[in-house]
Amino acid sequence: MGRVIQIRVSAATFDLAEVERRWPRLHPLAFAGSGPAWPTKGALELSAALADRLALGILPAEVAAALGPNIRRLEEARARLDAALADWQPSKAEALSSELEDILDELEKSAKRL
User: Fold this and answer.
1) Residue 63 domain-assigned?
2) 80 in any annotated domain
3) Residue 74 in contact with residue 47, Cβ under 8 Å?
4) Closest Cα partner for 44 from 66, 19, 17?
5) Is residue 4 part of a domain?
6) Which of 39, 49, 58, 64 could staple 30 via S-S, CB 3.0–4.6 A?
7) What's the confidence (pLDDT) of residue 14?
8) Is residue 7 assigned to a domain?
9) How many whole angstroms separate alpha carbon 35 and alpha carbon 25?
């Protein structure tokens, strides 16, 4: 690493609109009324917002009961993804990003049943 240039391994959502299209029921659960708290509403932010709302008791009780276990799994996957990125392990991070998206897909299916 240079003295001026910093090298990072990071993950970001390429198409923010795709997040809302792919997870239309989760998106408002995570971001409704959030205003500037989440200026970027990508998949990682969706995961973090759901975990925050569950932890703070903001989600409706029925939603928290039905989705809570998978939201906690989602948060664990996001933490592992963050750790892989911090440890410069892009292959592991890629696999974890797929796991995170799979959990979001499961949550979306569960949210459809509510």
Assistant:
1) yes
2) yes
3) yes
4) 19
5) no
6) 49
7) 93
8) no
9) 18
